[in-house]
Design a protein that fits this description.
- The protein folds into two domains: 295 residues, D-Maltodextrin-Binding Protein, domain 2, CATH 3.40.190.10; 255 residues, Dipeptide-binding Protein, domain 3, CATH 3.10.105.10.
- Helices cover 23% and strands 20% of the residues.
- Strands 1, 7, 8, 9, 10, 11, 12, 16, 17, 18 and 19 form an eleven-stranded mixed β-sheet that branches. The chain has a three-stranded antiparallel β-sheet with strand order 4-6-5, with helices on one face. It has a three-stranded antiparallel β-sheet with strand order 13-14-15, with no helix packed on it.
- It is globular.
- It is an alpha+beta fold.
- 54% of the residues are buried.
């Protein structure tokens, strides 16, 4: 199959340290800090990166992506293709073979039945699954025998690597989650906080939005790994404190997502205790536009498709908001060389990068004002525009972070320049990205007019990612507010493009369709992309084996981490 050969290439060997690891746990403890604290260890109940990354220490997929974007087997013996017989000639089935002797951390056998259950868990009609797009077009998952998993699709699927691939779609244990299907999923606190996994570590204590304690999984498939006996995974604080704890004080070994001004980061690294690592992938800082009405007076119908937004439904308003933003200045003050201005929500790989939206790279305040004038939005005595009794007054929310608050302040001023009033709100990242269906402050509930955050996707193929904006992906009460279509965008033509890409094998044609979806979102101003962000993290100089990965979890090879011995 041509597509598979192109996308996968040769299956790359895992990045391994040359340092000998005499026995499991010999290197004691490793300390990790994520200033956005995880609120669950179940990646199917949160779209937040912090939850996906923390869970990846415990839960694993059949295959994942290495630092070069190549798909590599993890729980599976190999990656199925048409050539090796794992993918059917008509592209409607993919059959995976589990490695022999796999065990869950509790010592029980990992079987194909766990994969069947995982699919049922994420596709249950009465539940909400944050990663449901990974299982698009799946009509059945069958345990052919204890080690053989057959996935059947309702269409020919040239890229059948959504289910059970990448950090976003790991296996969960059927026995542990058996009573957690559908609407009961968020209620299974013990399972969600302490999932039994196959990864190198097992949870011993989970404190939501605070600290996770883990120990080496005694049933991990490689008897010499992991090198560390314990992990302290600290959450909370801010990016500056996290950076200092690795680069200046040496209190922690790994700090994630150092969203700091370039000069601040450089000064920290000068202390000599740690190393900053960075690489570009598909992470885009963006503003999401709420196409629904978040007015609290609407009660349970607030921010649902039953009520259109009173003024953001006007594309002239959305376009004017985009035109007023100086993306180049945002990059300069926020990210330096670790950022690039972008007009696309899909910035990479290069074959998928559209050039049709590049006009957004130039700020144009005067044209934005004229656009609003022509659309009938007239400035009042206070300078705020209004039409038919509706004022352009926006609640703009984001997570708490110095760079994001700098961005909010600048954007508020630019929007004021065109006659839009803006109220700024920032929410602790642990809550904002937490996915708690009872909280009014999550980015899924989106009880604001616009919100800003960054997101990316597993691997190098964007099929599942672009499916995020299908109608069915809109968070709503019926899905316990899970779903990745935060704007509540719903367009039959867009959904048709998603369906067409699912059946398309030619790589160039897939690229055309992905660009068409990106351009539709951009040219309807549903999403206002700001910065193509490189991932920036740091590790202590005594932590070996770290390989930064922008195509999967950053902790993807934590089993290979080890303590560098003094010479």
């Amino acid at each position: 199959m041509r597509l598979t050969k192109i996308l996968l290439g040769a299956v790359a060997a895992m990045a391994m340290s040359s340092a000998a690891q005499a026995e499991r746990g010999a290197d004691g403890q490793v300390n990790i800090i994520y200033w956005q604290a995880p609120s669950t260890m179940n990646p199917y109940l949160s779209g937040g990166t912090k939850e996906l990354e923390a869970a990846s220490l415990v839960l694993e997929p059949l295959a994942r992506y290495d630092q070069d974007g190549n798909m590599v087997p993890f729980l599976a013996e190999d990656v199925p293709t048409v050539a090796n017989g794992g993918v059917s000639a008509d592209l409607t089935t993919i059959t995976w073979k589990l490695k022999e002797g796999l065990k869950w951390a509790d010592g029980s056998a990992v079987t194909a039945a766990d994969a069947v259950f995982t699919w049922k868990y994420c596709s249950h009609p009465e539940g909400g699954c944050a990663q449901s797009e990974k299982y698009n077009d799946v009509t059945g998952v069958e345990a052919v025998d204890d080690r053989t998993i057959k996935v059947t699709f309702g269409v020919s699927k040239p890229f059948p690597y959504g289910p059970f691939v990448g950090a976003q779609a790991p296996l969960i244990q059927a026995a542990q989650f058996a009573n957690c299907l559908g609407a009961k999923a968020p209620e299974c606190t013990d399972a969600n906080f302490g999932p039994i996994g196959t990864g190198p570590f097992a949870v011993t204590d989970f404190r939501p939005n605070d600290v996770i304690s883990l120990e080496a999984n005694s049933n991990y498939r490689d008897p010499a790994k992991p090198a560390f006996a314990k992990v302290t995974f600290k959450g909370g604080g801010d990016a500056a404190a996290a950076g200092r704890s690795v680069l200046e004080t040496g209190e922690f070994d790994y700090a994630w997502n150092l969203q700091l001004a370039p000069d601040v980061l450089a000064n920290m690294q000068a202390a000599g205790k740690g190393t900053v690592v960075s690489s570009f992938g598909t992470l885009v800082e963006r503003i999401m536009i709420n196409m629904t009405n978040p007015d609290p007076a609407l009660g349970d119908e607030r921010a649902t498709a039953k009520h259109a937004h009173p003024f953001l439904s006007d594309m002239a308003v959305r376009k004017a908001l985009s035109m007023a933003v100086d993306r180049k200045l945002l990059v300069e003050i926020g990210y330096g060389d670790a950022g690039r201005p972008t007009c696309n929500v899909l910035p990479a790989p290069e074959i998928y990068k559209s050039s049709a939206n590049d006009a957004c790279l130039v700020q144009d305040i005067e044209s934005a004002k004229k656009l609003l004038d022509d659309a009938g939005w007239v400035a009042g005595g206070d300078g705020v525009r209004a039409k038919d009794g509706k004022r352009l007054s926006i609640l703009f929310q984001s997570s708490t972070n110095a760079v994001r608050q700098d961005f909010q302040a600048l954007i508020k001023q630019w929007w004021s320049d065109i006659g839009v009033e803006t109220e700024l709100r920032n929410i602790d990242a642990s809550v904002f990205f937490g996915g708690d269906p009872a909280s009014p402050d999550t980015f899924q509930k989106f009880f604001a007019d616009v919100e800003m955050y960054a997101n990316n996707f597993d691997g190098t193929d964007p099929e599942s990612y672009m499916a995020n904006w299908e109608c069915k992906q809109a968070p709503r009460p019926e899905t316990q507010w899970q779903g990745n279509n935060m704007p509540r965008y719903c367009n039959a033509d867009y959904d048709a493009l998603v369906a067409e890409m699912a059946k398309t094998g030619d790589l160039n044609e897939r690229a055309r369709l992905a660009k068409a979806m990106n351009d539709k979102l951009m040219q309807e101003y549903i999403i206002l992309p700001l910065v193509d962000r490189g991932r920036v993290s740091a590790h202590s100089n005594t932590l070996g084996g770290v390989v930064l990965n922008t195509w999967d979890s950053e902790l993807w090879n934590a089993a290979d981490w080890h303590r560098v011995k003094s010479q």
